Amino acid sequence: MVKLKIVSYIRHESTLYIPEDIMSKKIHQVLLTDQARQELTSYLHKGVHPSRVLNRVRVLLLADTGQSDGTIAAQVGVIMGTVYILRRRFSTGGVDEALYEKPRPGHKPKVTARIAAKLCSMVCSDPPEGYSRWTLRLLADRLVELERIDSISHTAVPER
Known about the structure:
By secondary structure, the protein is mainly alpha-helical. The chain contains eight helices and two strands; from the N terminus they run ββαααααααα.
């Protein structure tokens, strides 16, 4: 039996006893092949990868050794929920699903590569008469004037 001490926000303590065999059962187990383990280990030693991906690699490697979620979370520096989510993503989709996020939905950017190229050429050209240099407002107005874009704020211009 494992003894868990539960403390609520109203300073009420209670103890919960859970049999160890229930706690040790993992719904989503990480079982790596030798090739996958070598590939993940190479992530840690070769190349440049985002820290988020490196933490996920560490979690998967430790989960493959059979360690508990709490131990893995403490060693890697993440919360237990992250370990659980990575286990689940690995068991449902494999290594790539666990390491990388799916693209998030959202609107497409107004300033495309073609508009950004036009913007660069405008900045390199001479400013309009009466101005000594291009301002963000002038650039935004000129993009709309040339019908490159329907509408754009001057604050959105420097994003590209």
